[in-house]
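Here comes an entry:

___
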Amino acid sequence: MGQRATLGPYCVRLLGGRPDRAVSGHRRDCRGDTAARRCAHPNPDRLSQAGGDAAHPAVAAQCGARGSRIAGAEIALKDDNTTGKFTKQVFTLDVEQVPVDGDAVAALRGLVASGHRFVLVDAPAETLLRLSDSVKGQDVLLFNVRAPEVNLRQEDCRANVLHTAPDLAMLADGLAQYLVWKRWQRWFVVSGVYPEDRAFLAALRRSAKRFGATIVEEREYKETPGARRSDSGQQLIQLQMPVFTQGAPDYDVLVVADRKEVFGPYLPYRTWDPRPVAGTAGLTAMSWHPAHEQWGATQMQNRFQRFAKRFMWPVDYQAWVAVRAIGEAASRTGSGDFAAINDYLRGDKFDLAAFKGQKVTFRKWDGQMRQPIIIAGPDLPVSTSPQAGFLHEHAEVDTLGIDAPESKCKF
C-alpha cells in the first residue's frame, strides 16, 4: 500500500445568489490547491496519495472540463432563470473561491455587503461553522453542499444553515436498509484510523443497531508505508488484503469505513472469504450517481454532461438542488425578499421535484434536506433507500438519518 498524505487545507468556495438582482460574476482562483485538482471525484473528501500531489487513479479518471463543484450550481441557475422568464424574476450567481491561505469569513462578509443573502458553502465542517457564526443574526442563509458531519445537524446545528448534502447518518442508514433487505445482516466492519473514518464507523454502529444487523467483528487497518505504484505494488496488495481480512467470524458482508480511501478501494475481490464489500468501497450510499436514470434523471444527466463535459457526481447534485430550492421558493412566493424565501423553504408548502421519485423538503428540526439515498456500485445504481418495509409514522424517508425525537439540535 502507498503511504497516504494527510489532506491539507481546502479551497473554500462560496456561491452567493440574489434573486431579482442583476450583478456581475467574479472569481478568485485556488492556485496550487489540492482540492481544486480533485475534479469530479465522486467524493471530494477522499483523495489517496503516494506522496506529493499524485492522486488516486479514481480521481484522475473523473477529471473534466469544468470545476468540480460550480457546474451544478451554474446549470441550476439556468433552470431558475427559465422559470424566471414567466415570473419576471432574474437570478444571478457570484463565485468566491478562497485560496487555502485566504480568509473565508472576509469573503463571506464581502458577499453579504454587496447584497447577497443566499450563499452555498463548499467547505469543511469547521469552516462552515465559522462562516455561520460570522453572520449570525443577519438576513443570510447558508447552504451546506458538502460537509457530511452529523454534528453539524445535531449539537453544532445553526439556524442559518440548511444542508443539501446528506449526513453520515443518512448514508449509513440508506446502506444498512439495503443490506438488511438483502438479509446480509452479519457485518464484518473494517475501519481506518482517521477521525473521518471513526465518524462513519459510529454511524454504521448506530445503523446496525437501528435496523437489526449484527457487527460480528470490528477491525482497524493500521496505515503503513508501501509501494503501491511500484512495479511490485499490485502483488503486495494482492497478498496484503487477504491476510488483513483473514480469521473473521462468519459474516455476510464486509463493511468499510475508510473515507480517505487509504485501503478501502483495494478490498473488493481481494478479501480472504468471498464476500461482497460495502460502505466507502464497493457498494456505497450517495445522493447522486452518474448512471442514475429513474424519475426523469436521464434528461438531467444529459443536460449536465453537455454543459460540464463530464459526469454529474453527488456534490454537483447537492449544489444543483440548493440553487433550485432558492429559485423554487422565490418563484412560489413571487418575491426576492429574504424573509419570504427563508420562511417558505422551511415551511410545509415547500417541496421540489429533484429526480428522486419523491419531492425533497427540509426537516424543521435540523435543517437537513430529506431525500432518498442511492445505493450503487462503481458503475451502476443498485437500489434506492428507504427500502420497502421500513416504515415511519409520517414519511418513510425519515427512516434515514436522525429523526425528530432523537435530535439534539436546538436552534
